[in-house]
Amino acid sequence: MEESVKAMAESVKDLEGKLVGLRTKRTARELPEKERSVLEEEDVKKLHAMIRQLNGHVVMVENHEKVLEKKEKELEAKVGKNTRRVCEENEQLKMTMELQARSRGIRGRRNLGILMLQLGTSSRSSRPF
Predict the structure, then answer these.
(1) Which of 26, 51, 76, 114 has CB atoms 3.0–4.6 Å from 30's, for a disulfide?
(2) Closest Cα partner for 112 from 120, 122, 124?
(3) Is residue 33 assigned to a domain?
């Protein structure tokens, strides 16, 4: 009987060892789950890295848009200023041309009057009294 108790005690120790081994050993189902969780963690890290990168691009695009809006406003102001300047110059040229036309007309009439006077005096001097 003592032998049987010793055999049973050894059997119990073996079974306890196997139990500990089974508890600590991963099963065939646990291995893929662990690998999947590692892959999922890597995917999440990659996703977060991509999100950070996209956020950086969004910030850059927003900054470029602000610079572009500023440049457009500056260009509009410059175009408006140039347009006003050109309109003012055109008005001044119109006035100058009108004055020159009037001056030519006045000068032409004056020259005509002088010519008529000259013709009148020359026709009188050529006429016998």
Answers:
(1) 26
(2) 120
(3) yes
Tally of structural domains, the chain: 1
Give the pair of three-digit tokens for residue 21.
């081994």
pTM above 0.90, yes or no: no
Which residues are CB-contacts of 26 (< 8 A; sequence separation ≥ 6)?
Answer: 34
Alpha carbon distance 22, 16 (integer Å): 10
Distance in Å from the first CA to the final CA of the chain = 188
Which residues span the domain enclosing 70? 28-126
User: pLDDT digits over 59-85, tens only?
Assistant: 999 999 999 999 999 999 999 999 999
Tokens for 111, please give them. 């020259």
Percentages helix, strand, coil for the chain (3-state, rounded to 5) are 95, 0, 5
